[in-house]
């Protein structure tokens, strides 16, 4: 079988990790430009040049210039999903979140500032808002899978989906509130953990009921007073 000439003569393919890092680097440059000169005044060409990649590469990885914020912005949901997946069977969810979840894990201060800045921009930029909401929509599937497993119910069960939606909404609203208050209050990030925990518990308690507790008792994973 003849070899692919392009594959033989071209650059070696990059690894998934290298691709993630390059996408994140582009994302950081896009956010920096959006913050400095606004979304409307920023072009894909400018983002590509700042990130040191070709426009062809930029448009291959991102469908629009606004989509360039996804890799950085997704950190606000991916870290939470990772902590939720590590939730030990039999442990109270609230206690687990208090012990393991921290906003954006341990990133650089610049990344925290950039993520919060983009979240603030979603209030006035409809396309950025759409990107933010799509990321949360994707996260909800993971939330439903984990909650369903712990409750001993299918992920598409209405009770599970309602709880997943409540957790997702609590995460989004609490993060948006942090972004809003952190702009003028450097101490907001320190209070975020306690406020997030309270919001999460309130969101889950709103769907407390006998049917869910019967399922919870079978699995032994959700404490009555915590989740």
UniProtKB/TrEMBL annotation:
- Taxonomic placement: Bacteria, Bacillati, Actinomycetota, Actinomycetes, Pseudonocardiales
The entry's keywords = DNA-binding, Transcription, Transcription regulation
HTH tetR-type domain boundaries: 20-80
Query: Which Gene3D superfamilies does the entry mention?
Result: Tetracycline Repressor, domain 2
What PANTHER family does the record point to? HTH-TYPE TRANSCRIPTIONAL REGULATOR RUTR, MYCOFACTOCIN BIOSYNTHESIS TRANSCRIPTIONAL REGULATOR MFTR-RELATED
Annotated region described as Disordered, given as residue ranges: 1-21
DNA-binding positions are: 43-62
Against SUPFAM superfamilies, the record matches this protein to: Homeodomain-like (SSF46689)
What InterPro entries is this protein classified in? Homeodomain-like_sf, HTH-type_TetR-like_transc_reg, HTH_TetR
This protein is called TetR/AcrR family transcriptional regulator
